[in-house]
Structures
1.
Amino acid sequence: MGRLLMLLVLLAALAAAPLRAQPAATVVGDSGRAVTVVDDRGRAITVVDDRGRAIPVPQPVRRVVALLPSLTEAVCALDACDRLVGVDRFSNWPPQVQALPRLGGLEDTTIERLVALQPDLVLAATSSRALARLEALGLRVLALEPRNLADTRRVLELLAQALGRPGAGERLWARIDQRLSDAAGRVPPALRGQTVYFEVASAPYAAGEASFVGEVLTRLQLGNVVPAAMGPFPQLNPEFVVRAQPGIVIASARGLAEMPARPGWQALAALQAGRSCGFSEAQYDLLVRPGPRLADGAELIASCLARLGGRPK
């Protein structure tokens, strides 16, 4: 239940150095930029986060706290996992981060415990309730919350800059992008263009065309029953799904197993014909986190579709 609550809160938001006083952040209105400046204290990277604030990040950054799973994964994918000293309760990849101190979630970050870790840099979602208090305590906070593929690419390079590894984010994205293209090539021709209902929670909430999940489906040459106009992760009337009659249903294995019992959903031809993909909890994380494992999620979907390829609509 806690995992589902965290996912819903996050999706709703998407529509050992001593502590030092942090210079006042300047609102510049252009997120995702990074510049190198040199002052009397030495080299620093100034990055503009997703609030449009310019945040000076003295180099090198040795102690990092990440309060969002996709940001934790991004730090590790940039070969800086050894700099992490604390993470949110839902960060679970790569396995070594599970041994780090757990610092709560978007709504209940444990501020005192986080401060005691003396981080050089805190990475948090723009929707985190802890931002103002952390900054008031003198911590450097980058608020980053990728909402689409372009955001993911931008955030990877911004983090690489902040970590003193300029260019590493772009190189990582190039590998992700190539794998997305390779996964698209594995989708059976008979299924290309099929409309998909992608469920992110059983209320039901769905991933629409405007979401990063929807963009991955588009890269896989699939349609979406939820148009962009409805927002990235709308809550749907269950009858909407029945009327839409998606060609393919994608959900968690648990959610997929529950669908036939929902009123009227027995009429979904995709469920009747077995044109569905149900994923385990660990696999599902790959699909709903806008981070460096997006291509892994795309490959999971492509593999499922390859197995479905011969099933008639």
2.
Amino acid sequence: MNKLLILALAGMMAGQGAAVAATSIGIVTDNGKPVDFVQRNLPAGTKFVHKPAYPAILENFANKYPLGVYNASTGAAVSGPNTLHGQIWLATSFTPKQDATVKEIDVAAGYIAGTKNLVSVGMYADASGVPGTVIWSQKTALPTFSGCCSIVALTDKAGVAVTAGTRYWVGITTLANASDTSAAWNLVVRNQIKGALAAQNRGSGWLAGEAVPNFAFGLYGD
């Protein structure tokens, strides 16, 4: 399998040497519908406790590490077409082991620069090994990159049904009204050897490959 050429961004490159200490809870709106957006931040050296609203369906956060659940200082670039690197959209695949309803998607990602702090987090059906039809998406702001630990939790009480043994994708993309946004999707620390099927869209469609390490995310529901 080909490895994706992923542009990695270090925390100091983003000008964010200090950890974020504030805790905030807010609401963003997507198509007129209220969406829960929870930004969980802790000072450096504080034990991080990840508490999703629903049981885990699948996640790659390193919950057994007391001082960090993902690589807080390094992430893969996500950017719009009106940025230095041009459009870079990212997605990673997952295959549930049992039928479930996804009611919460968590991503570890951070905002770096741009007129608007706004991206779209989406779930996609599979289309012959790359992301296909969008089956769920929400617009959201991101915590500032970097610093440990912040997780964006997007919830939907109705949820999205997924089928056991079927491949799906979770992706982060930019928006037409935020085309100069630059962000980073943090990388996992739990598995830095075995690659994951991921995809990148530089403006000419999705290209699948292997991401090592994978992008940090979790799916929760029932």
3.
Amino acid sequence: MKKVFILFMLVFLGAVAPAFAGSCGSHGGSGGTPEVLYLLPHNDHDVDLTGKESLHFEWKSVPKPGGGREAYRFELFRGAEEAYDRIYHAELRPDVYTMEIPADKFEDGMMYTWRVKQRDARTSAWSRQGDRWRFTVRKSGTPASTPAVPAASETK
């Protein structure tokens, strides 16, 4: 009887432990909330906005947090590395995977960075900071020269 009870407890704990561990994330931190995967604009590329009204940002809808997605947070920064200056941010519905930013928000030859985080509906934990993708804007129709804000490797 004792062996049956021990076996039962091992099976029971083995089945319950993963569900319990998944609900123990930290609130407001990474808490296991998966990072958002970016699509557009591509990282470390020139973006030609000549004659365009806006710049299109896009990210993947997966992976989704274990408790479901409550929201996205989109942030756009002027500059790169330690010289970030946030120029736009928005909290978005969980079914929105794109953002359009007016072209007049961008300066020719300037480097910009962007990121998107998602919040788990069950734990309210945001995904960790993750990567920031960067790009340099062109509006003149000619290739951009050196970006207005140098990359970290050039400043150290």
4.
Amino acid sequence: MLKKSMKRLVIPIFLFLFLVSAVQYDMKAGQYLSKCERDELIGSLCHLLFKKKNTHGDEDRLRYLSKKVQADIRFLKCTKVTWDELRKTIINKPRGKRKFTAFGYGSLINPKRNLELVHTKDYIPALLIGYKRVFHLDHPSPETSSVGLPAVEHPKETARLDIFPTHNSSDIVNGVLFEIDLRDFERFKARESVYDIHECLVINYAEAMDPNNRFPTFESAYVLSLPEDHPTRNPNVLPHIVYLYNYLKGGEYWEHQETTMEGEDKPLYPGYVDLLAETTYLSDQRTTLYQWIKRQGACKNILFPQSKKNPARCR
């Protein structure tokens, strides 16, 4: 169960439903993304990352977080468990508490995706230390994918996200915690069975970002990670654009505004989507999403416009 000290940061479900329609781009299985649609999505992400106020540099934030969570990496060591072991752990809990806490770091941070998968109501942004997030999962059957096929002009853009342990406390992954109960276990397993399960300690995001909180809360959660020798790990693929868009827009959801008692607007979880882009890498494990998106032609046209004319909309 999510700890009471973290419950106060949970997003109410009615607010969740109110904003959910804005964080997903839908494609049909077998449908190709057009070049126009690709440019439009890249442009939207370019606006999201580079055209907003108070965007912080990656080096400053990562340096701050690394200093903030200078925990002994041995203390943060994760334990591998099997799907059967996890199921038995849930079944052996008292009735009414048969659930486990998952840490979502890719498409699972998008609230729309989660509503289709589990009956959860509570989500809490969190950080995982000692793991690296990489776009190197190549879908084995892209024609059946719920996010469609890549643009014909960009056939290598098929990759989804994975994380793997580095045992380095400077490697940080932000995601969300949510609970999965026994009735949703088999559906969750069917979708994610390609992954290994690691039981890890994660840190509360809001507390980690609070300079006045010297002792942020840690909690145990289950994390999905591809086996090291899995055949879908491909070092030569690029991010699937629709998947990428839904991923970063899901991250933007956690940065939406709330109104203070003084009538001022402020982000609920400031810097969340920036940190996604700063700590997510291409399959070369060196290039960040920030760097890659900024180099795309559709983004260059926004950052360095040759004309004031707005591009045509695809839809």
